[in-house]
Amino acid sequence: MLVTEQSNRSNQRHSLVFSVVVAVVISLLALKWQLALFALPLAYGVYHLMRRRTLRRIKVLAEPLPDTWEEVLLKNVVFYQALDEAGRERFRNLVKVFIDEVPVTGIRTDVDDITHVLVAASATIPIFGFEDWEYSGLGEILIYPGAFNEEYQTDQGVSRNTLGMIGVNHLSGVMILSKPDLISGFKNHKDKRNVGIHEFAHLVDKADGAVDGLPNRVAGDVAAPWIGWVAEELKRDPRAREEIDDYAYTNEAEYFAVLSEYFFEAPEHLQRRHPEVYGMMRKMYHQDTRSFLSRVKPRARRVGRNSPCPCGSSKKYKKCCSQKTKRGMKLNA
Q1: SS3 content of the chain, % helix, strand, coil (to 5)
Q2: Tens digits of per-residue pLDDT, 71-126?
Q3: Considering just the CA atoms, what is the radius of gyration of the chain in Å?
Q4: Quick count: other Cβ atoms within 10 Å of Cβ 81?
Q5: Which helix (H) or strand (E) element contains residue 98?
Q6: Which helix (H) or strand (E) holds 52?
Q7: Closest to 85 (Cα-Cα) out of 70, 99, 75
Q8: What is the crossing angle of helices 113-127 and 85-101, to 10°?
Q9: How far apart are CA 10 and CA 134, in angstroms?
Q10: Phi, psi at residue 304, to the nearest 5°?
């Protein structure tokens, strides 16, 4: 999605060559039919049509990231917090291009800055290690006010167990995400659950045309071991699946998407329990998240006086540990 000097020159060269070919064809036709000369401006139009997306991206990349978007990233996205300044600049650029090109529409809910930026962050994280990437075929993202069912209903009283999905058939090119679940996926970075990353992992998988749990960018030395591993995992006795969420065992595609959540949410857990799987995913995504995310130190959570006490007493903090702390200060004085 990013434009480099090399890619810009390449696009410019291809656009020029193609427009010249169109001009030559029109000139040859004009030898027999002079009215064809009126079509020569078509060559100019072809050049600008082929340059349009690249030029627009150059313009978008030149603009600074809005402060409100930066604040969302710093407060909610641990992946972004772990980056050095060069990495953050790349991340910001990917977010800007994604937001500019992919419509995000709220269905009976609003799309605020937090929602919009977290959608873009969900799209950026899985492909951050790729030198060049395009989410081709993604036309729109729909944000629902909550979980939904197979008929896309969110009404009270219906069974709602779907947090996100990529559309098929008449919804091909559309992604649907539950707004509260998208946001909660970034609140707890260690819970191994992030519906945004999960659904964009499906799109990484789908880049070769099939959602089959094997992305097309998998290196040759990883493809066979991964296929073998997943095949054996799907045969496992359900009673022996305590390490991985049960939903992963739906099929090969869901196994890849769920393991992607583990890879980006709790890589140290994945590497410790299944080092061979972590190694394969590291090669698939071209990222070493265990080493990378360990740079982020957990922030101390601020507890309000009327919040439930973190010690688990079910009392308010001001009537529990807050008082203990005060008494301790007096005794130590």
Answers
A1: 60, 5, 35
A2: 999 999 999 999 999 999 999 999 999 999 999 999 999 999 999 999 999 999 99
A3: 25
A4: 17
A5: helix 85-101
A6: helix 41-62
A7: 70
A8: 120
A9: 16
A10: -75, 160
Tell me which residue of 212, 251, 209, 214 sits closest to 234, measured CA to CA. Answer: 251
Tell which residue, 265, 275, 228, has the closest CA to residue 245: 265
Diameter of the chain measured on Cα atoms? 104
Spatial separation of the C-alpha atoms in residues 122 and 200, rounded to whole Å: 7
Contact 37, 26 (CB under 8 A): yes
Strands 174-178 and 164-166: antiparallel
Q: How many residues does the chain have?
A: 333
Q: Which of 113-122, 235-244, 250-259 has the lowest mean pLDDT?
A: 235-244
Closest CA to 175 of 122, 229, 251, 230: 122
Q: What is the pTM of this model?
A: 0.85
Residue 173: both structure tokens together: 């090119």
Question: Residue 148 has what DSSP assignment?
Answer: B
The amino acid occupying position 97 is V
In single-letter form, the type of residue at position 67 comes to D
